[in-house]
Every structure is written in C-alpha cells, then in structure tokens.
Amino acid sequence: MAEQNPSAQPAAGAGTGATYKAPTPKPTQNPALRMMGLPNLPRKLPSRNWLIFWTITGTISAAIIYDKREKKRATAKWKHVVAPLAKDTIGSASQLPRKLTIYLEAPPGDGLRVAQDHFIEYAKPVLAASGLDWEFVQGRQQGDVRAAVAEKIRRARRKDERPDEVDLQTDEATIEALRKKNSVPEYEGTKGDIIFGRHTWKEYVRGLQEGWLGPLDPPAKSGPETTTAAVEASPEGVKTEGEGEKPEEKKEEEKKEDEKKPERPPQPPPYNSPDDYSLASLPAQIPF
C-alpha cells in the first residue's frame, strides 16, 4: 500500500496537463486619494504641451505666492521692531509729538503715483504700527526736493543769524507763531527724515549742502537780453479782414483762459553750485 500511492500521484498530475495559478488581486487605490474622492492617477505622463503649460503656470504661481509671503514676513518683522515706539509717553499734554518727514519724488521718466504706491504698500503699515506722525514733501519734478530742503534750512539759519528780519508769512510760519503764542513746546529730540528713492536721496543731499553752505540771499538775477529780429513779411502770412477770427471764437477763448487754474509757482534756482562748496564756511549752528 505504501508503494502504490507515490506512483498514483504523478500519473494524476500528468493526466491534467495544467498548473493552478492564484488569481491576481486588483490594484488597490491610495487610501489618501480615496478619502479625498480622487480617482486613480494615470500611469502615463501627460503630453509635451501639457507639461510645458503646467510647468510655466506652476513656476509663476509659486513666485507670486513666495513674494507675497516674504513681504508679509518682512512687514510683520519691522512692525514688531517699531511697536515699542507707540508706547512712548509724552512729557505734557500740550507738547507736540515726534513727527517724521517723508520725502517722495517722481522717478525719472515716470509720475509721482509710482512713488506713492510704493510708500503705501511697503512703508505705511510699518509707520502706522510705530504710532508716529509724519508729513510729506513731494516733488513732482526734478529739483523740488532740493529747493524744499534748502529753504527749510535757510529759514532756520535766518532765525539765528538775522533775528530782526521778518520772514515770509507762509502757512508753516503762521502755525509756528500761533504755537509760540500759546506756549506749545516743540518735540525735544531727533525727529527723523525718510527718503524714498536714490534720485530723491541725491536731491536731499544737494539741498543740505545748499542750505548750510550757501548764502541766505538769492543770487542776483541777470537782466534779460533784448534781441531784435527782423521779420520778413510774406504774402502767405498776410491775412485779409475776412480771414480773421470771428469775435465769438475770441470770446470763447478768453473765457477758457479765465477758467484755467493758476499756474504752478516757478521753482527757485539754486543759491550756489557744487564748485562753491570748498570756498564756503560752515555756520556756527550746524548740527554735528
């Protein structure tokens, strides 16, 4: 009996002629994707055009997101740095607080709106967190910041060097006179100037040099040169009475000229040039 069983088993296996294979299980989906309701990802890559599209779109989106995130981080950092300034106390209720002076000027070949947007986006949140007051000096054309800085320094010098001289009655002078009359003390300490742009910084330094190293009186104006030119009359330039403008058109033009806004005051010329710096002497009240 023991010898018959081994011989029977190979015969039975040889008679069938096929081997048994276990059924292959179906590919299981990623459980994370299944919980999110997403189908199985395709096994082949997308086409070349789709790869280019998604690469460019993803790169631009990542750059924009990174820029906004870093800007928020930098703004939050400087807000935290200047936050203690908002907790500083004032000596008396009538004393003026610290006030900063912000200098803005239109970039070369552009308008002032660009500089204003830059200030609103990057600097204004930090200044608001500091609790400080500020005033603007805005230049719409080249030379405005230089003239404003130099004139401010010259007014301060006139008070010390020429106390008996009456200065021009501007809005700032009127406000300062009222404060002196009401015994309102000024802020004692460094106020601070903030300059935006390299072109503004160049004019700011030029105004400092002109104000401290230049004279208090404006330079003498040279008389206008009178030139006479002979105008040759041509038959094309001669108009007859019928070709002249109508009186109604003249009246309309006069009305438009009357309705025009007053022109911007001219920019004062510089009181000295960079060549005069080496020959100038420093005033006694210049801060060091």
Structural write-up:
It is built from eight helices and three strands, in the order αααβαβααβαα. The radius of gyration is 41 Å and the shape is elongated. The chain starts with a helix and ends in a 29-residue tail after the last helix. α3 (48-82) crosses α4 (112-130). Residues 225-244 have low confidence and may be disordered. It is 45% helix and 6% strand. With 288 residues, it is mainly alpha-helical. The chain has a three-stranded parallel sheet, sandwiched between helices. α4 links the parallel β1 (99-105) and β2. 9% of the residues are buried.
Q: Compute the number of strand runs.
A: 3
Proportion of residues in helical segments: 40-55%
How many helix segments?
Answer: 8
Radius of gyration using CA atoms only: 41 Å
Instruction: Give, in order, the helices and strands.
Output: HHHEHEHHEHH
Estimate the global geometry from the Cα principal axes: elongated
In short, what is this structure?
This protein has 288 residues and is mostly helical.
Q: Any descriptors?
A:
288 residues, mainly alpha, 3-stranded parallel β-sheet, elongated, protein transport, translocation
Give me the secondary-structure topology:
Blueprint (H helix, E strand, L loop, with lengths): L3 H13 L14 H6 L11 H35 L16 E7 L6 H19 L2 E7 L4 H18 L9 H11 L11 E3 L2 H16 L33 H13 L29
Parallel strand pairs: 1-2, 1-3
Helix pairs in contact: 3-4, 5-7
